[in-house]
Prior knowledge:
This protein is of the alpha/beta class. It has helices spanning 23-33, 54-66, 91-108, 127-146, 164-174, 186-191, 195-202, 248-257, 278-305; strands at residues 4-8, 37-41, 71-75, 113-116, 151-155, 179-182, 208-211, 213-223, 228-239, 263-266. It has a single domain (4-305), classed as TIM Barrel (Alpha-Beta Barrel), CATH 3.20.20. Helix 3 (91-108) packs parallel to helix 4 (127-146), helix 4 (127-146) packs across helix 5 (164-174) and helix 7 (195-202) runs parallel beside helix 8. The relative contact order is 0.14.
Amino acid sequence: xxxxxxxxxxxxxxxxxxxxxxxxxxxxxxxxxxxxxxxxxxxxxxxxxxxxxxxxxxxxxxxxxxxxxxxxxxxxxxxxxxxxxxxxxxxxxxxxxxxxxxxxxxxxxxxxxxxxxxxxxxxxxxxxxxxxxxxxxxxxxxxxxxxxxxxxxxxxxxxxxxxxxxxxxxxxxxxxxxxxxxxxxxxxxxxxxxxxxxxxxxxxxxxxxxxxxxxxxxxxxxxxxxxxxxxxxxxxxxxxxxxxxxxxxxxxxxxxxxxxxxxxxxxxxxxxxxxxxxxxxxxxxxxxxxxxxxxxxxxxxxxxxxx
Length: 307
């Protein structure tokens, strides 16, 4: 069963030209909207480890507790395969230090899960070598995060292991009890794979998922000599929850039926249909909670008719 509905602070970071709040203002916003917790972006303008020392972390944790936001997840922004052109730079060590510090931050804020990425595939190295690097790095990160009682959750975002079959392989290869999947519906939906099989496969390994909904906007390139167009890769447009093409009703149902009992975060991490003013952001954030209420009611109704 879904344990909590939480809001990603990146939604109110101003990163895509939208209205922005400080981390403290965002916490108040999430609580006022009715969320159970928060997914905190661990970079400026929000909770960067550079800006939050022990005193600031304690104050932020106290604020979270005072607003009764009981579920706290921290979002990291790593790329394990970065800068493979320059082998003299200890890139793997830099990534491990960063992720370890984020695990400490997660602990200090009262959280149990740290969201991390794998790596973007780099032309300077073979795929197999990059896979091995990601596995070894995340294995060490998981061991170090265990010192803080933190689980590192791998989101299917960067190129390496973004496919659900490869993501499943990755978690098994890392083989650490505190390394699990933060499997999202967005990637397999865009990959046009068997979306439902993906959810069934990953459900048992997933401890959290982050959601947003989208519509596809076809794109075309004009060729004057041919007086015709060729199709380009579609643009993906963020829309309110339930208005897009991703079948979240079935996604959540399959996750829960395969043992999922984690949190679900809502994020607005690209330009929104309707603009980025505060009113629009709040409308999207409320629509997610309304959607989840309807989902829970439909699940309860189905259960009552089958018993």
